[in-house]
Design a protein that fits this description.
The complex is a heterotetramer, with two copies of chain A (341 residues) and two copies of chain B (610 residues). With 341 residues, chain A is of the alpha/beta class. Chain A has two domains: 273 residues, Rossmann fold; 35 residues, no CATH class. In chain A, 30% of the residues lie in helices and 19% in strands. In chain A, a hairpin with a 5-residue loop joins strand 8 and strand 9. In chain A, helix 6 runs antiparallel to helix 10. The termini of chain A are far apart. With 610 residues, chain B is an alpha/beta fold. Chain B is built from 21 helices and 22 strands. The longest helix of chain B is centred in the middle third of the chain and has 20 residues. Chain B is globular, with a radius of gyration of 26 Å. The chains are: A alpha/beta (341), B alpha/beta (610). Bound molecules: thiamine diphosphate (2 copies), iron/sulfur cluster (2 copies) and magnesium ion (MG) (2 copies).
Chain lengths: 341, 610, 610, 341
C-alpha cells in the first residue's frame, strides 16, 4: 500500500496524497471536491505525509480516509472525535484530522463532538454537511430543515435542526468556520486556517448529496443566486455581499438585518467582522436557517485558549520535576513495606 | 492485670457501623498493622450504594471484614469471630453472621431509644437476654473518647468521630498488635491538622488502655506471623495492584500508558491511581462516557501507546460496539471489567461474577477476545501485566474480569522484582523495501503488523469493514470473509500456547473436581483443602484464562467422576465447559452480592460425594 | 416463429448489473409478476455497501436472484439457471455461480474496451471461446432501447436507463409472463412523468418483441402456478412483513405503537414503513442514536404503549445497557435485530446469523431475554406479532433475530385474517382497595403488574437497581437478590409454555437430525427433502424460539444418531445446544455473507451419513 | 406503595408528594431543598398526582424520583432525556420531569440533552449542578472549573468546563433558567415557570455537595457575599444587583461589564433583560465562569417554538383525515394482491 519512494515534505504534491484505492462516491458527489482541495492544500503545510492522521466515523463522508494517502482510521459511527482524541494524546506530534458527516458528528456523535470542542485538543474536524444521511440512503439528519420529507419522515420531519456553528459556540469551540464544496479556493483557505489554529477547529462544509438531497445548497452555489446569498466573512472587514457588494449586515440593537448601501445607509452602518468576538459569531451563527439573511462562510470565530494535550504534557513535566521521574522499584517499595525472611 | 496471652491460628473480625463511622478506614488500618506484623490476611469491605444513607438506618450500615492468620489463607473468612458494632443497626445487620459463641464489642452509647427504633429493635439487645450466647463487651466508647479529648477544645462532632480509633485501639490490645503504624499513619494523614492527630491518637490509646486496665477481658490473643515466601511485602487491594501491573507493563514494553475511561463503581479507583502516576508519563483521560473512553484508548493504540480502559458491567455493555472495532482493527487494548451485581444498575457496590458471558460472547458478529481473570487482590498485578503482554503480542483486545471483591479487598503482596517479569517485546514495523501490508501476519501466532502513524512510508488505512487478508483493503469477497473470521478465531485460540500445563491441586483424578475462575479461587481452595483433610478424593483446578481454555483441560476433566463449578452467577462458566467438553458439570450458583464462603462450597462438595 | 412452450417446474434467474442499472427494481418487478401469476417464489437481493460505486467496477455490481416455481419452494435457489448480465463486471462476478450449461443474457453494448478492462477481462468473453459451454444471448440492448425511444426526444441518459426494462421484457417473453402488472406499476411510479412511463413501457415491449421476433430463442418456458393454500396473497419482503406484524399487534392489543430507532442497514426499512402508518396512530421517533431509540421505547413502554425498536448488529451492541434496564424494570419491549455480517461494521449489506450469542448472552449480569427468529420473509409477520404478544404477556423485552436475507428477500405471503390472530390481552392495573405492589407477579407466568402513569392512585417508582420482591422497593438484601435473579430467569423459562410440541419433519428418529434456526430454515428443509427423496433417514427440526428452548427438544435430540446444525456463524446455536443437552451436535458453519445453498447442506448430510 | 385515599388535585398539599421511601442523601445535601421546593410547588399546578412522571438517570440527584410520590423511573446513566421523551410521546397528557446531575446530563447524557432541547418536547429538565460526581465519590464533572483537583485529577482537571446555559442556547433550547438550592422562593418560581413553558424547559440548579465539593457556590449563598454576586433576572427589568442594588450590567459594544450607579452611570445605562432575546441570553450565559461579573439567576431565555409531540399529533390527525383512519384489512388487501383458490 505504501510507496517506498519517499519525498521530502517540501516537495510533496497533490498526487502524493492520492491513495491507491478507487474512490467510491456517486459520480458528481460534493465529496470529490472536498477530497481534491484537501489533497491540493496539504503539500503547502510542509510536513511529511506520515505525520497526518485521518480519523472518520461511518457515512459516505467517512470513507474519506481511504482516498488520501496518509495514515487513516475509518472507525465506527459517531466515535471519530473520541478516537482522534486518543490518537492526539498518544502522539501530540501528529496532525490529526476528523472527517465526519452531519449525522455522524451531530446525531450519534453529538456528545463526542461537543466534548472535543470544550477540551480543545488540537484536532481539525471537517464536517461534511449534506443535511441528509447519505450512506443509509436518505433519512433526514439533525441539520435537515424542519418539515423535511425523507424516507423516515414521509410527512415531514418534526425536529428543529441543529445549527452547527451555534452548537459549536455553545460548546465553547475555539475555532468555528464554514465553507462550501463548490468554493474550491475558499475551502482551501479554510482548511489552511483550521490547520494553523492551535486547538479544536470545527469546519462545516456544505456538501451536495446529489442522490438523496440534491440542490440543498443550490442557492449558495448557482451563479445567479450565489452572490446574494453568500456572505464571505473576513476579519476586521465590513460584512458586505451581493453581486455589487452593495448589501451589508446591520445590527439593529441585537437584531441583524440586511441593508442596501445608498442614500439611507453607508458603509459605516455595516457590521465589521471580528473573529474573536463570541457575540458576533453567535449572531452570525443564527443566520443559518433564516431566509432573510445571507449564509456566512469563512471563519466565524477563532480564539486561543488552553489546549488539552499541552496542559497534560505540562502536568507530566511538572510531576517528573517535583516527584522525580517515575522509578518503579522505588515507588512500590515506599510506604508501609515489610520484609519476610 | 497481667496479660494472659493465648496463641490462635487466625481470627476473623468484622467492623460494622454507620456509613459515617469510618469503618472502612478502621478495617484498613487493622489490616495494615497485622500485615506489617507478618500475618497473612484477606479483607472484604462492604458498603452501601448511598454516599451517606440516613444515620442509624439499616441501609446506612458499612462494614469491613478481615481474616488475619499465621497460615497462608485464601479468603476473608466465612464468619466473623469478633463483631465490632458501633450502633444498633450494624448489630442488627451483622449479628446473624457471627460464629456461635462469638465475641461482640459494641459502643453502648449509641443504643438510645431513637437508634434502637431506627434499627428495628423492640427492646435493647444489650439489656434483654437476646445476646446471652455470645461474649458481649458493651463499652461507652463515645463517652470515653469525650473524656480522653476533653482538654483539646475540639467540637463535639470531631471528637465523636474518633470513636472508631477507640475501637481499633481496643482490638489492637486484644490481638496484641502494635499501635505505632497507625499513629504514624495518622500523623501523615492529618499533617495539616495536628489537633486531629492528637484526638485520634488519644482515642486509640484510650481503647488500648481500656483493654489493659478494665478487668473484663480475661485473655489476649496472639496470631503468629505467617510463613510467607521471603521478600518485601506490602498490603494491597486489587484495584491498586491492577494499576501497578499496567504501569509495570508500560515500563517493560517501553510504551507510554494511555488510559481512557469513565468513573464507575467499583472500577473508579483504577482511574484515580493511574492519574496519580503522571511522573511515569502516564496519560489519563476522564472521558465523557464509557464509549469515548474505549474509543480514545483505541485511538491511542492505533498511535502506538499501551492503551487501557476500565469499567464495570453497565459500562462494559456500552463498550461492546467499540470492542468489535478493536477486534476488526486488530489493535492491542486491555479492557478491565471490575464486575458488580447485575443486571442493569443492579447492586453497584456488591460483587458478582456474572459478566463472563458478556466478555466472551457479548458482541455482534464473530468477535473473539481473550479473557483473563485474577484470583486474588495481589494477582490483579500479574493478570494486568499478562493481559498487556498478550494484547501486544497478539494484536488483540484482552478483557480482564476482576470484581468488586477483588478490587476493594486486600492482602499482603510480595512485591515483584520488575526485572524478573517476562519480557514484552514491541515490534513496530519499520520501512523496508517490501511493500507494507498491514494485515500480514506473524506466521506462528497470527498477529498482524503494528505500524504506527509517524512512521515514514507506512501510510495505510484500517477500519471496521471486513478487510482483505494481508493487504487490509476493504473486501466484500465471500471467501475472504470466511477466511478472516477463521483467522481471527485462530489467533485467539493461539493464546492457549502461552499457558503453562494446568495444575491440579490434589490428586490427578478422583471423585470430584472443583473448577473455579476469578475471585472464587480462595473459597474453592479452602473448601477443597478442608475436604482433602477429611480424606476425600477431591481436587481443584483454577482457570486463569477463561477464553481460550487451556488445551489440556478436556483430558483432565474426564478423569474425575464429578465436576463442580462454583460461580457468583447462574452458571456461566458451567455452560461454556459443558458446551466445550460435553461433561456434565454441576454449578454452585449463589448470587447474593457476596463472595463465596468456603463453608458453602464445602457443604456442596460433601453432599455430592456423599 | 411460433412459440414452442416447454413446461418447467421452476427457474432461478439472477439479474446483475451496475449499481445504477436498476437491477433491484428489475428483480422486484419480475417477482411481483410471477407472484401474481401464482408461482411460489423466493428472492435474494445482493447489493454493494456503497451507494453508487464507480460505474463498471466489480465493486459496483448489484444483483437480484429469484426462484419461481410451481412447487412450494423454500429458497431463492442454489445456482441461477439464467444470468442476465448488464455489463462485463456483472458477468465476471456472477458467472461462477451459473449452473453448467446455463443461459447467459448480456447487453453487448457495454462490452467496450473500457468496461472490459474495468472488469479485469483481458479479452472479450463474448468473442473468445470462454463462454462456449453456456447458451449465450448477446443483445445490443442499449442500441435497441435507443431505437425504440428515438422520437421521444429524451436525454440519452434517460433512455439508456430503460435498458433494464428491455431485459425484463425479454425475460417475461422467455417465461411466458404478462407485461400488464409492470406497465401498471410504471404508470403509478412515474405518474408525474408521462415521458418516463412511455420510454420504459417501450423498452419493456421492445424486449418482449425481441424475444418474439428474433429467431435466436428456440423455446419459451412455462412455470405452472404453484399449489398454494387458498386465500389472498401478496408478495412481501421480511422488513415489510415484520412492520405489518407489529402493526397488527398494536391493533389487536389496542395499544398505540411507538417506535424509537436509528437508521442502519438492513433494518432502516422498518422505520420507513412504520413512519408511513401515521393513519394507524403509529408514532415513530428517529432518535439521535440507537441508545436513545431503545431508551425512548422503554419510556413509552413505561407509559403504556406497544414499544418497539429495530436495528442491526452494531446498533444492538449499543442497546445492550438499556436492554438490561428493560429486564430489570420488567417492561414489555420488542427489539428487532436484522442481522448483517460482522464483527464491527463488517459487511453491512450482507447477511449473517452471528448475533445469536449477543442476543442470548450479551449483557452484564444475569439478564435473560426471550429470543425468537423468523424463518422466511413472510414469517416475519408472525414472529413480530408473537414477539409483541409474549412481551406484553410476560412483561419482558423480547428480541427478534431477523437478518439481511429475510429483511430484503421476498416471497408470496398469504394475507392473514387479523380476526383470527391470537388475542393479545393487556391488563393495566386499576386502582383497588389493596395496596398496589408493582412487583407482585402473576402466579402462573410470573409477569409483574403493568401500572401506567396517569392511573389514579398507583403512583410508584421503578428503576435499574435491584428491586425487592413484590414491593419493588430498592433492595440490597442478599437473599432477595438471589430470589429475583431466579424469578427473572424462571419467567423467561416459562415462555416455553407457549410453544407447540416440536414438529419433526421426517421420521421421529433416525441417522441424522438437521436442526436450524432463523433464515436457514428454507435451505435446510430443501436439503432434507432431497436426501429423504434419496431414501436417507434424515429429519429436520426448525427452532422458532432460540431462548428458551422448547421443553421437548432434549428428548427428541437423543433419538438421532447425529445432529447437524447449519448456521451462518461459527456455531452459536451449536454451543447452546451442546451445553444444554450434552449432545455432540456438529456445526455446518459458513460465514460468507450469503444464505446457505441447499446443496451445501445436502453435501454435508451425505458425508455425515456416508 | 400508593395511597388508596385519593385527594382532589386542587386540595393537594406538600405532604401528598412525599413518598414512603426514606431519603438517603447526606445530611445537609443541597438536594433536600430542591426536593422540598418541588413538593411545595407541585400542589399549585392543580393537576392530580398520577399525571406527573419523574424520570432520572444515575447519580445522587437521580435518586430524586424515589422521594416524590408521583410516577417515577430511576433509569440508567445519562439516558433520562431519551426515556422521558418516550414517556411524553406515548402519553402527551403527562407532565414529564427529568431530574439529572451535571455528569448525568452533560457528560454521558450530553447528546440526549441537546437533542431533547432541539426537538423541544414539552419536558422539564432539572439539572442539579454540583460541579462534581457525587455518587461515584468525587471525580470532576464537565462543569467543574478548569484545574479542579479531584480524585481523578490529582494535579487538576484539563477540560474547559461546559457552560450549561450557553450549551443549551447553542442547542436552540426554548427555555433556559437557573436557580440555587438555597434560594427557596426563587426556585419555586423557576419550577413554576418551567412547568408553564410549553416546550423543553432547561433549569439549572446550583446545588451544594457538602461531601465532595463543599462551598462551590458559597459566594452565591453566604449572606455577606451573595448580593454582590447574584444577578436576579426579571423580564423587562434593568439588570441591577448589589446590596444597595446600585450595581448594574452595562454593554460596552458587545462586552458586558459591571457599572456602579452614581455620577458616571445612571439606570439608563443598565441593560434591560429581555427573556426573548437570544443574544442577551447568550451574553448572560457567558457570565458563568467569570470573576468580574455576577452570576445571573432567573429565566435567561424563553420563547415559543413548535413542540415535537404537537406536530406528531398533527401528522396523525392529518393522516387519518386524508388517508382515512387505518383499517388493517383494507390496507393489506390494497395493491398487488392475488387470489389463490
Ligand atoms: C452504530 C451504527 N448505527 C447506525 C449506522 C448506520 N449508519 C451508517 S452512516 C449513517 C448516517 C450517515 O449520515 P452522515 O453522517 O450525514 O454521512 P453521509 O453519508 O451523509 O456522508 C448511519 C445512520 C452504523 N453504521 N452504525
Ligand atoms: C453507564 C454508567 N457509567 C457510569 C456510572 C457511574 N456513575 C454513576 S453516577 C455518576 C456520575 C454522577 O454525577 P452527577 O450526574 O453529577 O450526579 P451527582 O451524583 O453529582 O448528583 C457516574 C459516573 C453508571 N452508573 N453507569
Ligand atoms: S449518496 Fe450522496 S453523499 Fe453519498 S456518495 Fe452519493 S452523492 Fe455523495
Ligand atoms: S455526596 Fe454530595 S451530592 Fe451526593 S448526597 Fe452527599 S452531599 Fe449530596
Ligand atoms: Mg450527511
Ligand atoms: Mg454532580
Amino acid at each position: 500500500m505504501a510507496k517506498s519512494e519517499l519525498v521530502k515534505p517540501q516537495l510533496l504534491t497533490r498526487m502524493d496524497f492520492v491513495s491507491d484505492q478507487t474512490v467510491r462516491w456517486c459520480p458528481g458527489c460534493g465529496n470529490y471536491s472536498i477530497l481534491a482541495q484537501t489533497q491540493r492544500k496539504f503539500p503547502d503545510f510542509g510536513i511529511s505525509k506520515e505525520n497526518f492522521v485521518f480519523v472518520s466515523g461511518i457515512g459516505c463522508s467517512s470513507r474519506f480516509p481511504y482516498y488520501i494517502d496518509t495514515y487513516g482510521f475509518h472507525t465506527i459511527h459517531g466515535r471519530a472525535p473520541a478516537i482522534a482524541a486518543g490518537v492526539k494524546l498518544a502522539n501530540p506530534e501528529l496532525s490529526v484530522w476528523v472527517v465526519t458527516g452531519d449525522g455522524d458528528a451531530l446525531s450519534i456523535g453529538g456528545n463526542h463532538t461537543i466534548h472535543l470542542m470544550r477540551r480543545n485538543l488540537d484536532i481539525n474536524l471537517l464536517m461534511f454537511n449534506n443535511r441528509i444521511y447519505g450512506l443509509t440512503k436518505g433519512q433526514y439528519s439533525p441539520t435537515s430543515e424542519l418539515g423535511k420529507v425523507t424516507k423516515s419522515t414521509p410527512m415531514g420531519s418534526l425536529d428543529r435542526p441543529f445549527n452547527p456553528p451555534a452548537l459549536a459556540l455553545g460548546a465553547d469551540a475555539t475555532f468555528v468556520a464554514r465553507t462550501i464544496d463548490r468554493e474550491t479556493h475558499h475551502m482551501q483557505n479554510m482548511i489552511s486556517r483550521a490547520y494553523y489554529h492551535h486547538g479544536t477547529s470545527f469546519l462545516e462544509i456544505y456538501q451536495n448529496c446529489l442522490i438523496f438531497n440534491d440542490g440543498e445548497f443550490r442557492f449558495l452555489t448557482d451563479k445567479e443566486t450565489r452572490d446574494d446569498h453568500v456572505l464571505i466573512l473576513e476579519h476586521r472587514k465590513p460584512m458586505l455581499f451581493g453581486k455589487e457588494r452593495n448589501k451589508g449586515i446591520h445590527l439593529d440593537g441585537n437584531a441583524p438585518k440586511v441593508i442596501e448601501l445608498g442614500d439611507e445607509w453607508s458603509k459605516n452602518d455595516v457590521l465589521v467582522h471580528d473573529e474573536r468576538d463570541w457575540i458576533i459569531a453567535s449572531i452570525l451563527s443564527h443566520f443559518t436557517y433564516r431566509g432573510d439573511l445571507p449564509t456566512p462562510i469563512g471563519v466565524l470565530y477563532a480564539v486561543d485558549e488552553p489546549v488539552y494535550e499541552d496542559m497534560l504534557d505540562d502536568q507530566i513535566q511538572k510531576a517528573m520535576k517535583f516527584q522525580g521521574k517515575g522509578d518503579f522499584k522505588k515507588f512500590v517499595m515506599s510506604g508501609s513495606v515489610w520484609h519476610v525472611e | 492485670m497481667a496479660k494472659k496471652i493465648k496463641s490462635v491460628e487466625g481470627v476473623v473480625i468484622r467492623f460494622a457501623g454507620d456509613s459515617g463511622d469510618g469503618m472502612q478506614l478502621t478495617g484498613t488500618r487493622f489490616s495494615e498493622t497485622t500485615a506489617i506484623v507478618g500475618n497473612d490476611l484477606s479483607t472484604l469491605p462492604d458498603y452501601p450504594a448511598e454516599i451517606r444513607a440516613p444515620a442509624g438506618t439499616l441501609a446506612g450500615v458499612s462494614a469491613f471484614q478481615l481474616q488475619f492468620s499465621a497460615r497462608d489463607i485464601h479468603t476473608p473468612g466465612d464468619q466473623p469471630d469478633v463483631l465490632v458494632a458501633m450502633n444498633p443497626a450494624s448489630l442488627k445487620v451483622h449479628l446473624p453472621d457471627l460464629v456461635p459463641n462469638g465475641t461482640i464489642i459494641v459502643n453502648s452509647n449509641t443504643f438510645s431509644k431513637k437508634y434502637l427504633k431506627l434499627a428495628g429493635y423492640e427492646s435493647n439487645p444489650l439489656e434483654d437476654e437476646s445476646l446471652k450466647e455470645y461474649t458481649l463487651y458493651s463499652i461507652e466508647m463515645s463517652r470515653l473518647v469525650e473524656n480522653a479529648c476533653r482538654d483539646l477544645n475540639l467540637p463535639a462532632g470531631t471528637v465523636g468521630r474518633t470513636k472508631n480509633m477507640f475501637a481499633l485501639g481496643l482490638c489492637y490490645w486484644m490481638y496484641n498488635q502494635p499501635l505505632e503504624p497507625t499513629i504514624k499513619w495518622l500523623k501523615i494523614k492529618f499533617s495539616k491538622k495536628p489537633n486531629l492527630v492528637e484526638a485520634n491518637t488519644r482515642a486509640l490509646h484510650a481503647g488500648y488502655a481500656y483493654g489493659e486496665t478494665e478487668r473484663i477481658f480475661s485473655t489476649v490473643y496472639k496470631v503468629e506471623a505467617a510463613k510467607l515466601a521471603p521478600g518485601e511485602y506490602r498490603n494491597i487491594n486489587g484495584n491498586y495492584a491492577l494499576s501497578l501491573g499496567l504501569l509495570a507493563a508500560s515500563i517493560k514494553s517501553n510504551l507510554p500508558l494511555f488510559y481512557g475511561g469513565y468513573p464507575i463503581t467499583p472500577a473508579s479507583d483504577i482511574l484515580h491511581k493511574l492519574a496519580s502516576f503522571r511522573n511515569f508519563g502516564v496519560k489519563t483521560l476522564q472521558a465523557e462516557d464509557e464509549i469515548a473512553g474505549i474509543s480514545a484508548a483505541i485511538g491511542a493504540a492505533f498511535a502506538g501507546n499501551l492503551a487501557i480502559t476500565a469499567t464495570s458491567g453497565p459500562g462494559m455493555a456500552l463498550k461492546s460496539e467499540a470492542l468489535g472495532l478493536a477486534v476488526m482493527a486488530e489493535l492491542p487494548l486491555v479492557v478491565i471489567n471490575v464486575q458488580r451485581g447485575g443486571p442493569s444498575t443492579g447492586l453497584p457496590t456488591k460483587t458478582e461474577q456474572s459478566d463472563l458471558f458478556q466478555a466472551v460472547m457479548g458482541r455482534n458478529g464473530e468477535s473473539p477476545i481473550p479473557v483473563i481473570a485474577p484470583a486474588t487482590p495481589g494477582d490483579c498485578f500479574n493478570v494486568a501485566y499478562e493481559a498487556c503482554r498478550i494484547a501486544i503480542k497478539y494484536m488483540t483486545p484482552v478483557i480482564v474480569l476482576s470484581d468488586g471483591y477483588l478490587g476493594n479487598g486486600s492482602e499482603p503482596w510480595l512485591i515483584p522484582n520488575i526485572n524478573r517479569l517476562p519480557e514484552i517485546k514491541v515490534n513496530f514495523v519499520k520501512l523496508s523495501k517490501d511493500t507494507f501490508m498491514p494485515y500480514l501476519r506473524d506466521e506462528t501466532n497470527l498477529a498482524r503488523n503494528w505500524a504506527i502513524p509517524g512512521t515514514t512510508g507506512l501510510e495505510h488505512r484500517i477500519g471496521g469493514l471486513e478487510k482483505e487478508d494481508i493487504t487490509g483493503d476493504i473486501s466484500y469477497d465471500p471467501e475472504n470473509h470466511q477466511k478472516m473470521v477463521q483467522l481471527r478465531a485462530q489467533k485467539v485460540e493461539n493464546v492457549a500456547n502461552e499457558m503453562e500445563p494446568t495444575t491440579v491441586f490434589g490428586s490427578e483424578n478422583g471423585d470430584l473436581l472443583v473448577l473455579s475462575w476469578g475471585s472464587s479461587e480462595g473459597a474453592c481452595r479452602t473448601a477443597v483443602e478442608r475436604v482433602i483433610n477429611y480424606g476425600k478424593s477431591v481436587s481443584h483446578i483454577h482457570l486463569r484464562w477463561v477464553n481460550p481454555l487451556p488445551r489440556d483441560l478436556g483430558e483432565i476433566l474426564i478423569r474425575f467422576k464429578q465436576i463442580l463449578i462454583p460461580e457468583i452467577n447462574m452458571g456461566q462458566l458451567s455452560k461454556i465447559i459443558r458446551a466445550e467438553y460435553l461433561v456434565d458439570a454441576k454449578g454452585l450458583n449463589l448470587v447474593k452480592g457476596k463472595p463465596f464462603r468456603a463453608g458453602e462450597i464445602e457443604k456442596v462438595i460433601t453432599e455430592l460425594i456423599g
